[in-house]
Amino acid sequence: MKHCTFSFTTALGAAALLVLGHMPQARADASADLVAKGRYVAEASDCSACHTIKGGKPYGGGMEFKLPIGSIYSSNISPDPAHGIGTYSEAEFARAVREGVRKDGASLYPAMPFPSYARMSDSDIHALYVYFMKGVQPVAQAAPANGIPWPMSMRWPMIFWRAVFAPSVASAQKDVNRTFPTPAIARGAYLVEGPGHCGACHSPRGIALQEKALSASSGTAFLSGGAPIDGFVPTSLRQDQRTGLASWSEDDIVAFLSTGRNLKGESFGGMTDAVYHGTQHLSPEDLRAMAQYLRSLQPNSPNAAAWRYDPAAATALQHGDASARGAKVYVDHCAACHRTDGHGYAPAFPPLAGNPVVMSEQPDSLVHVVQSGAALPGMTKAPSAFVMPSYSQMLSAQQIADVVTFIRGAWGNNASPVDAATVASLQKSAPPRVLDEKPVPLN
């Protein structure tokens, strides 16, 4: 018995030593897993698109946002203790992300989408905090000072803005847990309404620049299309005919979110940033969940007629008739890539026939792309990059108005014409996006 007891004790001690010997490694593995999860949440939340400038260090801030009241610059959210968030506790970090209040108690401007981030779970916030503190390199640089003149630069009125327009974390979490048809749609809703903050661009805003709806439970205004941003008009992401995603399949949406292109169109402007920095990094399961959720949204304009292809413009061009307004400009400068029938060569060159961007009530996006050009960088799953040249130096405002009018009216698009004065008012001086972007190293 003594021998047996000794053997058992010895074995028990050896097992304990074995377990204790592996505990540091187990903690390291757990920490690495948490950092990896936090990085994924950061990608789902599109953090680097706003807080990492081209050529700058990850999360060093400095991105300019031009608002009606002046310019503001994104903050340094690296763990640098002097210029970043290195001294933030997790509670202070969570309050900034979900409630829009800095460590010092000052209010953040709602360019930071905290009304959407209020929906983020405690576990995602925890992982995000661990990632920023342990997985991101400190950046010892201050963001530029905001260019908002006094008295608009005062932040204390934002206390009242938050009270009226931003949900409490408790109410947002309750809405997250509402009933959904399937777990996948519930997951998609969480990603779209919360971390993805899609409504920040794709939902209309009120007179106080607040989003008129923060989730699908707030009505069909949510994701029904937003106000112009840097010359582009975010389209409806609901199942709206002509100007929404009614003609897009689940696979179309997944392809677009993962590559910035599909057989229906291509991303441009801020949406390209959202794909490049964010959605292309998400798992196939999460992308499909987002697609299923978007497919479940009822149209904001349920009585709108569906787009139907009209071959009249194509027939005329193919028979040498370019007498329609803007038709000759289209043949000379556009048809080689987008074809006389408007179908393009997708996914390399997107179709113009039936394209929601083309049929928008506001022509800003189409005018801006023609004027300033656009570039779609290579993505992980679609490494080829494509460019749309700028025509601002080749075509007059009248010619741009004519060709945009032709595109908006041809092939069944039947959108309103555009005049030269509108084109001139939308003239943008910014150069087209460059193509030499590489995936941003996020440590």
From TrEMBL:
InterPro entries found in the cross-reference section: Cyt_c-like_dom, Cyt_c-like_dom_sf, Cytochrome_c-type_DH, Membr-bd_ADH_cyt_c
Positions contributing to heme c 1 binding: 47, 50-51
Residue stretches making up the Cytochrome c domain: 33-136, 183-298, 321-411
Residues engaged in binding heme c 2: 198, 201-202
Signal peptide range: 1-28
Keyword Iron: yes
Coiled coil: none
Name by which UniProt lists this protein: Cytochrome c
CC per GO annotation: plasma membrane
PROSITE patterns found in the cross-reference section: CYTC
Keywords: Cell membrane, Heme, Iron, Membrane, Metal-binding, Repeat, Signal
Sample GO molecular function, one term: iron ion binding
Gene3D superfamilies noted in UniProt: Cytochrome c-like domain
Free-text comment on the cofactor: Binds 3 heme c groups covalently per subunit.
